[in-house]
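Issue 218. Parser rejects a valid record. Input:
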Amino acid sequence: MNRFVYIWSFLIVFFVNSFAGEQKVWALTPKAQEIYKRYHPSVYQIQIIDVSSNEKSTIGSGFKISREGLIATNFHVISDVVEKPERYRIEYYQDGKSQGKLTIKTLDVTRDLAILQSKNNNDPVLSFGSSKMSKGNRIFPMGNPLDLGMTIIEGTFNGLVGDEHYKQILLSASLNGGMSGGPAFDTNGKVVGINVSIKGNALSYLIPIEYLKLLTKDIDGKADLPDWKDLIQEQVLKKSAGLMRKIEKTKWTYENFGALKVPQNIGANSIKCWGKSKSEDIKEEQFFSFSYKGCESESKIYLSSKLRTGTIGYSITQLDSKVWGPLEFNEKYSSEFSRSHFYPSAKEKDVHEFNCINKFVRIAEHDWKGVYCVRQYKKYPKLHDAYLTFAALGEAKKGYLIRIGLAGIDEKLSGIFLNKFLGGIQWIE
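Output the parser choked on:
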């Protein structure tokens, strides 16, 4: 099942069944039916086979992109094979019949793409189109949902979302688990995107075809296969380094947050901010008031079913109380300081423990208590997660907390973000 799928629905889904050797298509629009009949022979089910049991453990979709037998899919569909090649293999199926084994030719983990090699030179090659479309245009994703047979659905193009490094097509339609890696066609039968994930009811994401075009050029003339884990590290670090350089060069805007002036926009379109607050209310047993602003990048890099990385997050919290005494407030303040850090959850098998340093520092001409922690990935030792937490000192019943988290970075680059972020904070009262 597509591991990016958190919510799924069966809205306007058209199933294709196989009966007595004949494919039957129900309730499709004429254009969808035309595209299905013409192009479905070049779309496959991808199965990740557990070698020990000889049964599938993961399913997805893929499609033929070259006369030499290259097949495109999502990285997250085949990630188990990269992580544990001794335990899994890749096979592909057409109309329920095995077409053989596949090997990995190349991948782009930051954009969730993989290109596989087959020995199939017979099926037609699908043509690439362009994701530069007008909102409202129809798109037709195809794939094998939930192991039920090949399916085509009809949706609406709603533009590109994300930052300059990784944009995605926002689609008004519900993809389903197992369709990941399948092609999405325009009305001319050209592939404009690759199915990747669901955002919510009747909203899904596609990878623009331009990223796949770039990846196909990357394999031209290359005979030797790289160490996949080394390649993955390089790709993640390249993305994080590019984002750090962009942040360093961008002119930030600032806003007032209680007694502080803090970053309002750090110049990254993929980072979204949210806020909440609550007032002191004795009747509701709310003995302190708080204001909170939290910002985090939406795009995460899929490394495995249990590990995602490549995120930036930060938050600013103001706490104060008129009811509590200094000791009660300090207990709450200390408790908040110790929790809610911006770093991805991970299993012990994937990451080492955090190494932390505690310091007292001066920020905006005030004293703060800070903790800086770093951990290293076990299978990708060049990658690190880092987080910082600062608590303003000096007031008995009022305080500010600043939390910053960076995931999947070269630790040396974390200073670029941290110096700019903390250096711009001002105390205005």
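Fixed in the parser; the record now loads. The helical segments are 30-39, 75-83, 209-218, 228-249, 326-337, 414-423.
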